[in-house]
Amino acid sequence: MQQSASGTHVNGSDQGKLRAHISAAAPNGLRAVDDVSSGAGWGRAGGGSRDYHSGQDGARGHGGWPEPPAVVYSCHMNEFSDGTGRADIDHALTRTLHRRAVVQGSITLPAVPAMLEDYVTLCLSTFAALSVDFDDEQRRQLRDTLRDQLDQAFAGSPRSSIVITYDTPVGTLVNYHVRPEWTSIASTYDAWVATRQPPYFGSEPDARVWALAGEYPDPKACPVLDIGAGTGRNSLALARRGHPVDALELSGSFADVLREQARAESLGIRVIQRDLFTAHDYLPGDYGLVVVSEVVTDFRSPEDLRRLFELAVSCLFVGGHLVVNMFVARASFEPGDAARQMGQQTFSSMFTQDEVDAASDGLPLELVDVTGVYDYEHAHLPPESWPPTGWYEGWVLGQDVFALGRAEQPIEMRWLVYRRASDDEIR
Ligand SMILES: C[S@@+](CC[C@H](N)C(=O)[O-])C[C@H]1O[C@@H](n2cnc3c(N)ncnc32)[C@H](O)[C@@H]1O
Known about the structure:
Blueprint: E1 2-10, E2 17-25, E3 31-37, H1 48-51, H2 70-73, H3 86-100, E4 103-110, H4 116-128, H5 136-156, E5 160-168, E6 174-182, H6 185-195, H7 207-214, E7 224-227, H8 233-241, E8 245-249, H9 252-264, E9 270-273, E10 287-292, H10 302-315, E11 316-329, H11 337-345, E12 350-351, H12 353-360, E13 365-372, H13 373-380, H14 392-396, E14 411-420
Parallel strand pairs: 7-8, 7-10, 8-9, 10-11, 11-12
Antiparallel strand pairs: 1-2, 1-6, 2-3, 4-5, 5-6, 11-14, 13-14
């Protein structure tokens, strides 16, 4: 069930109050209000009327507008007997300006629940700019609302956001509403076909994949499984080289593009549109090469990594290879929840070396090569094909998660090559 929550942050009456509406949405995304909790006990929401010392804050003119206190319109300091200074008058005018503002806004942010305090700060500073200050209880309510919506969004998908909409229709009042939004990984990639220009991941096969395939002198004797094949830059190149190729792909739109290209070139690629985590029964066990490029970056947990390794073991013949790339944390960096969640939101899931080792522990997989992806691909791709896409360099350097220079990056994308060992080789 999807939920959204909103708060009405009201000020300007004698009893400043806040109402929070918790709405529950049907699976089709339509929301229905199913609970309204009262803001009893809430203090004033801040804003202009609280700060006028003349007690006019309850007064309202026509249409619900607060009647501005007379003091605001006076420009003559010497009319005041209480020592009101120029700065006070200017400040009062500023507050009146804010009070008269009609503001509507919307902030969409990726859902990273572990960064809750950043969302709270962003909201409070945005609302403060509208002269609305929250007291402790109102902050707690805001924080709880944000936490709920962030948790829902992130649980829904690693392609998720929260949308904070707000408006100040009357004086120093803010209505805010927070709702989660998400799309599945498959739908996100499906949308690329409608919204982006191909090639989505470059035109050339990965240099590391191509080099490994080249170690098999007879391509026909080395059937390939390309997991998360996308639109097939690796599958197509390997099929042209003569490998029998099965392409496993989650996105229906990508699978269609790949099928169409394979048909146009009369390449006998078998395209299997499935989630890799449910594909076991559809795959034979005689592949010489399993390719997993830019796919682990969509994983959500080390358990996903384990399931990938188990699938590779069940698919590869003994002596065959698994070639996979992934972001691995540098030894000095232990990623916390915020880094991991932001990684998922930016197609950059990351794992520690211990997690990678544990995921293959006890399986008949021997790690035979580890290489940094950036340097390898840069050095081996044809110069005219570097970078493969406009986003590739920043992404592969980890900069979509951490806006840092290369030397400071706490993660590195690596190529890992495993040899399928015989079961006897593993104790
Ligand atoms: C960044 S693209 C890379 C495509 C291709 N491997 C390449 O390098 O050009 C990631 C691909 O993995 C696919 N993918 C992600 N999770 C998957 C899963 N659980 N099962 C199958 N495919 C998946 C996506 O649909 C997408 O096509």
